Queue: 3 jobs
Job 1
Amino acid sequence: MSELAAIVTGANSGIGLSTARELARRGAGVTVASRDPGRGGAAVASILRDVPGADVGFRRLDLADLSSVREFAAGVERVDLLINNAGIGMVSRGVTKDGFELQFGTNHLGHFALTGLLLPLLLAAPAPRVVNVSSDAHKVGRLDFDDLGLERRYGKMSSYGRSKLANLLFTFELQRRARRAGSALLSVATHPGATATNFFSVGPLQPLLRLFLRSADDGAAPSLYAATSPLIRGGEYLGPTSKPLRPSKDALDEALAARLWEVSTELTGVRFQEFAHN
Ligand SMILES: NC(=O)c1ccc[n+]([C@@H]2O[C@H](COP(=O)([O-])OP(=O)(O)OC[C@H]3O[C@@H](n4cnc5c(N)ncnc54)[C@H](OP(=O)(O)O)[C@@H]3O)[C@@H](O)[C@H]2O)c1
């Protein structure tokens, strides 16, 4: 059995696939957590081609469906490292299976629920880490708790920015709660930088993206650093070169983070029992 059990969400493409491949190369047991069995299976096969004998497998996870998140979490036996990487960006208004605004529901609430459901297993690990792939786009995000569905006014970019702001608020609040509970859990966020992945869909011009943007391997570098560096203390927000970045004022607002935590608990029904009373 591998020494480190890692779960990477959205590991079937882009930054997540590069992250999963490199973790497997370094000897971790890796679960490719992906919503589509065909794409997930292809990712596993591609990792096995590059890293023969890798300890890698696929499990289905749709972050836009809380019943899928619960089913996934119920099947996990061990996890040392959770990389909340999956994300959608700048899409037209939609809702998740549970009726949440699509970008907030997928990028934040799905990962919030997943992390909370896996918390007992993470806390049983000797050195647990949670890495949340955020973005500097969080700076355009605003959280209005009176319009979480963005029914009054929807913008593709502002909705994406809001979900990435939620990723950062969650990262920092998780770290504070871990510390207060005396847990060794480290919670870290990253901004991969503009990276040539399916995130930017330009049809037949897709290969041209690589001329202007970072490669997926480069985009995965901060995730890998956050996941493996002994220098990580928790609560960092790391940029494309793995150096700390300054988050927005809102992202550092502890009252906002605490409120988001409560609201996310209400919406998902996931309680983070071990961190609930601190
Ligand atoms: N690329 C950039 O420039 C950039 C910059 C800053 C931050 N980021 C962040 O980096 C992360 C990875 O994105 P990427 O650039 O690698 O894009 P990508 O290639 O589009 O990868 C996104 C991954 O998320 C998965 N995903 C989407 N919705 C999901 C759901 N409901 N359930 C489970 N998985 C789902 C996708 O699965 P499918 O293949 O099934 O769609 C895919 O595996 C995202 O969180 C993104 O916000 C990217």
Job 2
Amino acid sequence: MASYDVALQRREEIAPGTFAFHFARPTGFAFKAGQAVSLALREPPAAANSTRRTFSLVNAPFEPELVVATRVREASAYKRALTALPIGATVKLTGPLGRMTLHEDGARAAVFVAGGIGITPFMSMLRQAIHDRLRHRLFLLYANRRAENAAFLAELQALARDDDNFRLHATMTATDGRIDEETIRNFAGDAAAPIYYLAGPPEFVTAVGEALTRLSVPNDAIQSEMFYGY
Ligand SMILES: Cc1cc2nc3c(=O)[nH]c(=O)nc-3n(C[C@H](O)[C@H](O)[C@H](O)COP(=O)(O)OP(=O)(O)OC[C@H]3O[C@@H](n4cnc5c(N)ncnc54)[C@H](O)[C@@H]3O)c2cc1C
């Protein structure tokens, strides 16, 4: 697998404690929307297991930069070091990694279910699908504790307003409770032969997967990615 030195161009806080990191895209680096990269620090902190992490790319393949987003937990020496990286410093990027990419059959709907920072691969998939005017119907069920924690929410609301093919439901677990069979049925019950894509903390992905099984969704219509460490 190819590796590249990539320079940090910009960093921004996109929700409290959640940061996006923009890197220069190396010539020849190709990936599919939904894929991830591994970012290794050149001078990792001494703490064990602090050299590299895997992050989904938030940007779509048609966009010029490479962008990842993460929740910075104080307990993570890797993330503290990434957040302190000077603009212009480089990290070693390896990739692309991962197989969670949009299915080709446009007659089947895509139902994305994101828990918190699990939104990242779906940003890339949505931006690319809308850019390419794919005919897939796209549904996004996006769970956060509160609206202020929901990264990219304003962009998603604008996309849903402008594109009849894309339906968004942002749910706040602090007030609306957890996603269950009824939430899924009410939101995407009319989706044609959907493929479900799940991403977020392991506990979230497992719970949504179990709800889908209770709704008799076959395993081969579910793809998922667990973000360990949350
Ligand atoms: C394909 C993919 C895409 C991802 N995309 C994102 C993203 O866009 N944004 C983001 O914030 N995070 C993403 N993650 C998760 C990310 O790689 C980190 O694990 C996470 O951010 C937590 O890092 P941390 O340093 O805060 O926690 P850590 O201190 O690293 O804690 C992680 C914990 O999970 C455990 N763990 C790690 N891997 C596994 C495993 N395979 N099985 C079981 N336990 C394991 C470790 O032992 C450790 O205890 C992605 C992971 C994958 C696999």
Job 3
Amino acid sequence: MRMQALVLTDHGPELIDNLPTPIPGPGEALLAPRLVGICGTDLALVAGYKGGYRGVLGHEYVAEVVAAPGYPEWVGCRVVGEINTTCGVCDSCRAGHVTHCQTRRVLGIRDWDGVFAEYFLSPVANLHRLPDEISDAEAVFTEPLAAAYAVLREMPKSSGDRIAILGDGRLGLLIALVLRAEGYDPLLIGRHQNKLDIANAAGIQTTTHVEAARRFDVLIEATGLPHILPEVIDMAAPRATIILKSTGIERTQIDASIIVVNELRLIGSRCGPFAEAIVALAAGKIDPKPLISSRFPLNQAVAALESAAQSGVIKVLLEPNKPSPLQPQML
Ligand SMILES: [Zn+2]
Ligand SMILES: [Zn+2]
């Protein structure tokens, strides 16, 4: 069987029509996407992200299990899935830090074909069944929402409560929604009124401008700007916690003495807990649907990527191609 997929090649992203449909190996499931999301990581990979990934893009999905040899109970289930495939035996895996597996492969990011396709593979162990309360349009946010939930693990137990989130993009908005839903009162700092309006509607304070003298006890960086770190450090109150979420951050000169003198904590944060994201969605604590800017069929995936890269656009989704009424299988 052949399938269509969006492949990152040496010439950039290309829609390819005749890729072989993958065959699940031991412990693996074959999945058909119901809805997939384009995220900043996909755009960074296209823009020449380090590592030089080549293969099918995409890692945010809700899908149906088509086949799972040895696991018949999974076939037909509607699922979301974790993106790291791990070895289970290295030091990181045995310590329980599976997202830091020394030989990890990552769906649509490193050594594992992604979800911008008619079919893709996942280890069965990575899958989570979805309750009926969660719609596809909500479920497709599970992976980035889990990444937003990862911030909660790093929030200081007791410190001041001046909390700022920098960046009103996809991740910044989700982090704001999570913190608000979990009882915090963050200030979202951004540049796009249409994005800040979504946060306002969820009861989150927002601003486009912060006075130079203002300081925060917790700063969460989600701007995606490669050289933002010195600016973030300047906004930190003594003993502040700075949580860095942007994978696009680059080598930057900082005055490290400020970290020592002001006793700052600098924390990197990446993947997060799917279970918490699913519980929050099922309970209706978080509604990510206002973040959806547009939907494209898979066969317009290149245009969808271009759209997602535009300023002001938030979440672009890809859905399966609709069969043409003239195709023979309809007769
Ligand atoms: Zn992502
Ligand atoms: Zn490992």
